[in-house]
Design brief:
The protein is of the alpha+beta class. The protein is built from four helices and six strands. The two termini are 59 Å apart.
């Protein structure tokens, strides 16, 4: 007899009874015959308990595997976003530039009619109404050489403040506990 778990057959163990002993733990029983006597329904109940245990085991395993599957999907999505962000950062690093970019500085990306993209220190507002090329976006170069769009700066700065707070609390706790 076997147990089916998601289409795979798992061998089912047979019910095993405890070995009989007329002197359990060295103590003589008053009536050893009465202690080993079972009603026919006892084996049926034992088999039912084993079936229940198998069902619970199946359900538990299934639930745990479901959690793992959700975690895998979450990690796949995170990996996709990391790769997408890396590609975006690489594209921005390959834009033409006639100056040395400094982390923490904001740069403006423009596109020429030829398709060339380039960074400038001059914002569209500084050009006035006479901006020579299409403005494609404004970005800040981060210390890790990633780029943050100006519209995302508030979220990025809030995240960094939270990280700094966590690191400060961790350092204080470490110095207290020594």
């Amino acid at each position: 007899m076997s147990l089916s778990l998601r289409g795979k057959e798992v061998p089912r163990a047979k019910a095993q009874l405890v070995e009989r002993s007329s002197e359990p733990g060295g103590a003589h029983l008053v009536n050893p015959y009465r202690t080993t006597k079972h009603a026919p329904s006892d084996l049926v109940e034992l088999a039912q308990e084993i079936q229940k245990a198998d069902a619970f085991t199946r359900a538990t395993v299934s639930n745990k595997l479901q959690v793992i599957a959700e975690q895998v999907r979450f990690l796949q999505e995170q990996a996709r976003r990391v790769l997408q962000e890396a590609q975006h950062n690489a594209d921005l690093h390959h834009a033409a530039c006639n100056f040395v970019k400094q982390p923490g500085s904001t740069y403006h990306l423009y596109g020429r009619p030829s398709g060339q993209r380039y960074f400038s220190m001059i914002s569209p507002q500084e050009w006035g109404g006479d901006c020579p090329h299409e403005h494609l976006g404004t970005y800040r170069l981060e210390a890790d050489q990633s780029w943050t769009a100006v519209e995302d700066l508030d979220n990025k700065d809030a995240d960094q403040q939270l990280i700094d707070k966590i690191l400060t609390c961790t350092n204080v706790a470490a110095s207290i506990t020594g």
